[in-house]
């Protein structure tokens, strides 16, 4: 890879570098190809990020396994941290050499939703993207590369609009910083921002992966009385206990609905968080609710999935709510979570199970999809 010109003037646009990346060249292949990409120039508001660490999230794989209409080749990876190496014209929020965390919440920062803190429902998210008549940010063999959520962290370098970056304290390790951008904001935000779990309430988290573990520890932080973790992997359930679960259910051995009812004296739970992206656990989440309870769809469901709402449950005041990235106002939330980690109140160390190289990404995803491992696997570029 050629050296990067780290110019002092923000007016510099040309970067003209090549970098190694894990691309998906077509959906039929279903694998990552390690290839060289070209990043020619920065436009207004864009930042060249030297990626230092990127988490392997199941949501990335959904864009390979399901038809979602995105073009190919594609650069995935929406959970990463790195260094702001070159600034495009007009960048204001990020400084040269800042340590940054990316988040898959494109936003204009000016509409009523953004101003009120609901960046995930921005009315004009396209302002963080290049216009259709403009050249792409990244190329592979002369072809435009599609960046998942405008990010693309499975590469040594990527170009991101500053509206999707936030600077963090440089003392925070890059791998810990990376998981803040999805696993933490999605899991903890679902509990704190969306459900607004209160002290003494009861919670079930279905799926104790990276996002689920953060929902569990957030529920513990806010004082939930009973926190029930549900999974089919005993190692994940053991880790869930470490993150604050008061009860665990191995769904491969017992009936989840009956067990939750038994653990709550027949009442059910106030909040059920579905993290797996599967329909059956979502239906179970609806059925384990107490009167007036809510199930939160956090996991990404397959396109075309329909969910029948049982009238009997609706008559009990039960409801279902979609959660997008934990309703995070990440410019505020990520520094907050970073501070909780620095204080020893947020567990990121046990969240990260393995560190791998870019060349090992296919093996990493094979392990993730087979259910192996209890924590997050992180690509380490350092």
Question: What is the fold's blueprint, element by element?
Answer:
Blueprint: E1 14-24, E2 33-41, E3 46-55, H1 58-65, E4 74-75, E5 80-87, E6 99-102, H2 112-115, E7 139-140, E8 143-144, E9 146-147, E10 157-161, E11 165-168, H3 174-195, E12 202-206, H4 210-221, E13 226-231, H5 234-242, E14 247-250, H6 256-263, E15 269-274, H7 279-287, E16 289-297, H8 311-314, E17 319-322, H9 330-342, E18 352-356, H10 361-369, E19 376-380
Parallel strand pairs: 4-9, 12-13, 12-15, 13-14, 15-16, 16-17, 18-19
Antiparallel strand pairs: 1-2, 1-4, 3-5, 3-10, 3-19, 5-6, 6-11, 7-8
How does this model look, in words?
With 382 residues, the chain is an alpha/beta fold. It has ten helices and 19 strands. Strands 3, 5, 6, 10, 11, 18 and 19 form a seven-stranded mixed beta sheet that branches. Strands 14-13-12-15-16-17 form a six-stranded parallel beta sheet, with helices on both faces. Strand 13, helix 5 and strand 14 form a beta-alpha-beta unit. Helix 3 packs across helix 4 and helix 3 crosses helix 9. The longest helix has 22 residues, at 174-195. The protein starts with 13 loop residues before the first strand and ends with a strand. Residues 1-12 have low confidence and may be disordered.
């Amino acid at each position: 890879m050629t050296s990067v010109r780290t110019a002092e003037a923000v007016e510099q646009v040309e970067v003209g570098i090549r970098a190694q990346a894990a691309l998906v060249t077509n959906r039929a292949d279903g694998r990552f190809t390690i290839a060289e990409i070209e990043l020619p120039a920065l436009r207004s508001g864009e930042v060249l990020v030297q990626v230092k660490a990127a988490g392997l999230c199941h949501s990335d794989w959904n864009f390979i396994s399901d038809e979602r209409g995105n073009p190919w080749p594609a650069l995935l990876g929406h959970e990463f941290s790195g260094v702001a190496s070159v600034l495009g014209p007009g960048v204001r929020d990020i400084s040269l050499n800042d340590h940054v965390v990316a988040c898959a919440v494109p936003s204009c920062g000016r509409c009523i939703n953004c101003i009120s803190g609901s960046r995930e429902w921005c009315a004009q998210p396209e302002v963080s993207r290049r216009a259709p008549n403009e050249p792409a940010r990244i190329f592979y063999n002369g072809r435009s590369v599609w960046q998942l959520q405008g990010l693309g962290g499975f590469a040594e370098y990527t170009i991101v609009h500053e509206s999707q970056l936030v600077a963090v304290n440089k003392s925070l390790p890059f791998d810990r910083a990376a998981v803040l951008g999805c696993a933490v904001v999605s899991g903890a935000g679902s509990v704190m921002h969306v459900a607004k779990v209160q002290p003494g309430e009861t919670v079930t988290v279905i799926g104790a992966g990276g996002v689920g573990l953060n929902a569990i520890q957030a529920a513990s932080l806010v004082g939930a009385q009973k926190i029930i973790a549900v999974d089919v992997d005993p190692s994940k359930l053991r880790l869930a206990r470490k993150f604050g679960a008061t009860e665990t259910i191995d769904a491969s051995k017992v009936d989840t609905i009956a067990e939750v009812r038994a653990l709550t004296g027949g009442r059910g739970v106030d909040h059920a968080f579905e993290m797996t992206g599967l329909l059956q656990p979502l239906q179970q989440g609806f059925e384990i609710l107490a009167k007036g309870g809510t199930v939160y769809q956090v996991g990404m469901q397959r396109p075309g999935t329909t969910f029948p709402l049982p009238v009997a449950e609706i008559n009990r005041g039960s409801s279902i709510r979609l959660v997008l990235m934990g309703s995070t106002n990440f410019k505020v939330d990520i520094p907050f979570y970073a501070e909780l980690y620095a204080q020893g109140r947020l567990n990121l160390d046990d969240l990260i199970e393995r560190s791998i190289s870019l060349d090992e990404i296919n093996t990493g995803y094979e392990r993730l999809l087979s259910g192996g491992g209890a924590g997050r696997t992180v690509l380490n570029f350092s």
